[in-house]
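Entry 14. Ran structure prediction on the chain below.
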Amino acid sequence: MTVRVRDEQDRIASVAVHHRFLDESLILSERAGQQLLDALDPDDFYNPEVRTR
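Output, structure tokens:
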């Protein structure tokens, strides 16, 4: 399940991705964060260099 919340200007304010498999979810979060650096806060995504499982 993917949940996107939009603000008053119809911009994406937050995204929550809920998947059953942790490893695949972390990879998805890491790659999404790399693609969305200009639009969203990188702290909203998994970063293996900063976080531990």
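The chain has one helix and two strands. Will compare against last week's run tomorrow.
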